Amino acid sequence: MEILVPILTAAVRSGTPILYATLGEIVTEKGGILNLGLEGIMLLGAYAGFAVSYSTGNPWLGVAGAFCVGMILGLVHSFICVTLKGNQVVSGLAMTMFGTGASSILGRDYVGVTIEGLHRFPIPLLSDIPVVGPAFFRHDALIYCSYGLVVFLCWFFTSTRQGLYLRATGDNPRAADAMGISVARTRYFYTMIGAGIVAVGGAHMSVAYTKMWAEHMTAGRGWIAVALVIFAIWHPARAAFGAYLFGGVEAFQLRLQAAGTTIPAPILMMLPYLMTIAVLLFISIRKGKGIIFGAPAALGLPFFREERD
Question: If you placed Cys at 233, which of 1, 133, 278, 294 could pair as Cys (CB 3.0 to 4.6 Å)?
Fold first, then answer.
């Protein structure tokens, strides 16, 4: 058990940025919009979070700044995909390239700088539970917020009218339009909210996880989150399990390196991405057998209101 606790703790900390990115993408895709720009949004969120935290001395203002930057990027993506009916894949890839380049240029002056950031604090009583307490309840506030976000989204998607409207927009936008739901407004709003949540995942890396800025610091976590959305079958609770699983793989390879293993470091660093490939292969096999389900039926398809059968 003593060996398990530090691995679980590291898995939660390492998996939280991926969890935020995955939850944000689930919110976006539930409305029928595909966003492949997660890597770029996370990088700009990490930069914005760090820059605002460093300038103001308040990490929460940094998190809020990252969320606003993410919403702006979501607005741009919505304009291209909803108003202009542009290709959602191309727009998302452009967002990744823009975010990667812009964050590198803007963050040049912050390389090597550190901030106080968000501190870890234990939750009374819960943190004293054997194994579970140290692993899940001795972290920073953003990690605790991610727990609440998972619960909230599970409730929101299944038990609220607005959640039903969002799912209807992603599954059958024509029927949603016939019900009086504004498909364009719904997709705009939730694409912006989803991108904001993704950016918070990036901010967690710079404001709480590392408390510093480094170029390309997300290291492909945005792409892992894209695969994880499908692995989770668009369900927030399964997304949490998957994010911590990937975080555990990353933490495991870091501990192996620290232990002085003879396995070359580049091979160990490949483990999270090999895990991603394995997940995609698993998903493809299940899809080929007709087992996979849960994807919004209109995902990636533009909605033309004037079209009628």
Answer: 294
Tokens 């997660």 appear where?
Answer: 38
Q: Which residues pair with 139 in a beta bridge?
A: 121
Residue with tokens 């809020």: 64
pLDDT tens across 97-109, in order?
999 999 999 999 9
| 288: pLDDT strictly greater than 70 | no
Structure tokens at 114: 């550190």
CA distance 268 to 255: 10
The secondary structure of residue 4, as a DSSP letter, is: H
Which pLDDT does position 289 carry in this prediction?
Answer: 54
For residues 226 and 210, give the distance between their C-alpha atoms in angstroms, rounded to a whole number.
23
Long-range CB contact pairs, 56-60, < 8 A, 24+: 57/116, 59/115, 59/116, 59/117, 59/118, 59/207, 59/208
Which residue type sits at 202? G
